């Protein structure tokens, strides 16, 4: 009887772990091999100090214009790892993605003081066939609300690791769903 209980417990735990992972996997992909560092004539150290100063002022609510977002060619890839079609709800205000950039000479993230319309954008249903993907392009290194409420900067040349998180919606009404997290992707930034 103890053996049966132990086996049942292990099987129950295994199915909970599989359920927690879910059928959708998130991957962040850079479509470019390398990006070029442009510190606007500043050394990486000076550029990082300037970005940190701007970030602090923005946190305090001071009026300051942040730099333009870095142009990137990234894609968030949602992969259906199951053997059945899966419907996900994407593209609404509930669907927030966030980046974490580490390595290189450092990274700075800051609030982006932009105004958004007050309407609530509902997600759209997308059915991903078994083994197939749905791609979300990212052309500016920004994330958060509507993909633009926070700016992310690398601070110099080097090899970085980029991780993404993406919040799915549970339904077409925009109720918050599961948060997916990617494995780190390599981003290489070179001198001009």
Describe the structure.
This protein has a single domain (23-190), classed as Sandwich (Immunoglobulin-like), CATH 2.60.40. Helix content is 19%, strand content 42%. The protein is globular. The protein has 2 helices and 13 strands, in the order αββαβββββββββββ. The strands form 4 sheets. Strands 2, 5, 11, 12 and 13 form a 5-stranded mixed beta sheet that branches. With 192 residues, the chain is of the alpha+beta class. The longest helix has 20 residues, at 2-21. The protein has helices at residues 2-21, 44-59, and strands spanning 24-30, 35-36, 71-80, 86-90, 97-103, 107-111, 124-128, 133-140, 142-143, 150-154, 158-169, 176-181, 185-190. The protein starts with a helix and ends with a strand.
